[in-house]
Design brief:
Number of domains: 1
Number of strands: 4
Order of helices and strands: EEEHE
Low-confidence stretches: none
Radius of gyration: 13 Å
Organism: Gossypium davidsonii
Protein name: RNase H type-1 domain-containing protein
Largest sheet: 4 strands, mixed
Number of helices: 1
Shape: elongated
Distance between the termini: 21 Å
Length: 83
Protein backbone atom coordinates (compact mmCIF):
# COMPACT_ATOMS: atom_id res chain seq x y z
CA UNK A 1 0.00 0.00 0.00
CA UNK A 2 1.44 3.36 -1.01
CA UNK A 3 1.06 6.23 1.35
CA UNK A 4 1.98 9.76 2.13
CA UNK A 5 4.06 10.47 5.16
CA UNK A 6 4.25 13.64 7.17
CA UNK A 7 7.67 15.29 7.01
CA UNK A 8 8.67 17.86 9.62
CA UNK A 9 9.35 21.44 8.63
CA UNK A 10 12.71 23.12 9.07
CA UNK A 11 13.57 24.74 12.40
CA UNK A 12 11.67 28.02 12.82
CA UNK A 13 8.88 26.94 10.50
CA UNK A 14 5.43 25.57 11.27
CA UNK A 15 3.39 23.40 8.93
CA UNK A 16 -0.38 23.27 8.58
CA UNK A 17 -1.73 20.12 6.96
CA UNK A 18 -5.26 20.96 5.85
CA UNK A 19 -8.12 19.52 3.83
CA UNK A 20 -11.45 20.71 2.53
CA UNK A 21 -14.02 18.07 1.62
CA UNK A 22 -17.46 18.06 0.08
CA UNK A 23 -20.10 15.45 -0.57
CA UNK A 24 -23.74 15.70 -1.59
CA UNK A 25 -24.98 16.98 1.78
CA UNK A 26 -22.07 18.49 3.70
CA UNK A 27 -18.93 20.56 3.22
CA UNK A 28 -16.23 20.71 5.84
CA UNK A 29 -12.59 21.30 6.55
CA UNK A 30 -9.93 20.46 9.06
CA UNK A 31 -6.30 20.91 9.82
CA UNK A 32 -3.40 20.26 12.14
CA UNK A 33 -0.52 22.65 12.79
CA UNK A 34 2.76 21.08 13.85
CA UNK A 35 6.03 22.73 14.78
CA UNK A 36 9.42 21.56 13.49
CA UNK A 37 9.57 18.96 16.29
CA UNK A 38 6.29 17.42 15.10
CA UNK A 39 4.33 18.65 18.13
CA UNK A 40 0.69 19.42 17.28
CA UNK A 41 0.03 23.03 18.28
CA UNK A 42 -3.43 23.53 16.77
CA UNK A 43 -6.19 21.16 15.62
CA UNK A 44 -9.45 22.24 14.02
CA UNK A 45 -12.35 20.81 12.07
CA UNK A 46 -15.85 21.82 11.19
CA UNK A 47 -18.22 23.05 8.53
CA UNK A 48 -17.16 25.65 6.00
CA UNK A 49 -19.34 27.90 3.83
CA UNK A 50 -18.70 26.37 0.41
CA UNK A 51 -20.51 24.45 -2.30
CA UNK A 52 -17.67 22.19 -3.50
CA UNK A 53 -14.32 20.80 -2.38
CA UNK A 54 -12.25 23.42 -4.25
CA UNK A 55 -14.04 26.27 -2.50
CA UNK A 56 -13.79 24.36 0.79
CA UNK A 57 -10.02 24.16 0.39
CA UNK A 58 -9.83 27.92 -0.26
CA UNK A 59 -11.90 28.38 2.92
CA UNK A 60 -9.58 26.18 4.95
CA UNK A 61 -6.57 28.19 3.74
CA UNK A 62 -8.25 31.39 4.97
CA UNK A 63 -8.98 29.74 8.34
CA UNK A 64 -5.35 28.58 8.51
CA UNK A 65 -4.06 32.11 7.95
CA UNK A 66 -6.47 33.48 10.58
CA UNK A 67 -5.27 30.89 13.12
CA UNK A 68 -1.61 31.61 12.32
CA UNK A 69 -2.17 35.33 12.93
CA UNK A 70 -4.22 34.70 16.10
CA UNK A 71 -1.36 32.60 17.52
CA UNK A 72 0.89 35.67 17.23
CA UNK A 73 3.39 33.94 14.96
CA UNK A 74 3.51 36.55 12.19
CA UNK A 75 7.11 37.73 11.97
CA UNK A 76 8.26 34.98 14.38
CA UNK A 77 7.72 31.82 12.35
CA UNK A 78 7.46 30.94 8.69
CA UNK A 79 4.39 29.03 7.53
CA UNK A 80 3.92 26.10 5.18
CA UNK A 81 0.36 25.16 4.18
CA UNK A 82 0.13 21.64 2.79
CA UNK A 83 -3.12 20.53 1.17
Amino acid sequence: MGGRFWCPSRHGWVKFNVSGLANEDEVGCGGVLRDSDGVARVLFSGPVAAKDSITAEVGVIIITLDVFLAMGWKGKRSLIIEI
